[in-house]
Every structure is written in C-alpha cells, then in structure tokens.
Amino acid sequence: QLQLVESGGGLVQPGGSLRLSCAASGFNLDHYAIGWFRQAPGAEREGVSCISGSDGSTNYADYVKGRFTISRDNAKNTVLLQMNSLKPEDTAIYYCAVAVGCSTWPNEYPYWGQGTQVTVSS
User: Which residues of 71-106 are buried (b: 16+ CB within 10 A; e: fewer)?
Assistant: First the structure.
C-alpha cells in the first residue's frame, strides 16, 4: 500500500531552521517526482518545492528560493526539505505528495501525506 508520512514540523522562532522528512512506503521514491506543498489557515494550498524522479532536478517557489533545499535520501526512501531563515509567513501545514512529474498544481499529485504543522513565531 502506497503511503507518505511527513515528520519534522514544530514551533521555531523567526530566523530558525527545521528539516521536514517525507518517508515513503509501498513504492520507490526515486522513480517519481515528490512535491512539497503548504497550506495556511484560510489560504489555498501552494507549492513549495519539487524534486524530479527522472533526473533529480529541483525547483522552488520564489517565496522560499534561497532558504529551502529539497533533497533525496534514497537509502531511506525519504525526501527531505531543509528550511532555513524561517519567517512567520512560512507558518502552515506542510504536505508531501507524489506524481509522475513535477508540477505546481496540487491536482497533478494523486497521493498525499497527512501533513506536518510548521509554526514560526517568537
């Protein structure tokens, strides 16, 4: 059974860092694109970053570029999202999702994890 489980969220002060993990079971992550999305209260779900399964290429939303880094740990069948220089506006539930290829559209991702809460506050 295909499953994605996020972890690593929590409360952090502005300027701090967190590392989110997306652990997969039931399939090999490195064959697929893995996207990270986030959703703040009352807001639409928005794309954060994606890593391709075909060549490992990565892309980032402008609002996280230079602060977030996505990577794979194939040995653990996990995708990581390192988040540095966090801002209060980064507060949201963060989700990972799997698709055939990277896309900014959530509807392109058929499988999702349950999400992990990230709160950036002093």
Answer: ebeeeebbbbbebeebeeebbbbbbbbbbeebbeeb
Angstrom CA distances, 65 to 3, 7, 49, 58, 83, stand at 28, 21, 9, 11, 10
Give residue-wise pLDDT tens across range 59-93.
999 999 999 999 999 899 999 999 999 999 999 99
How many other β-carbons are positioned within 10 Å of the β-carbon of residue 107?
Answer: 8
Calpha distance 112→99 (Å, rounded): 10
pLDDT (tens digit per residue) in 2-49: 899 999 999 999 999 999 999 999 988 888 999 999 999 999 999 999
Backbone angles phi, psi at 89, to 5 degrees: -70, -5
Exposed, middle or buried, 50 (CB in 10 Å: 0-12/13-18/19+)? buried
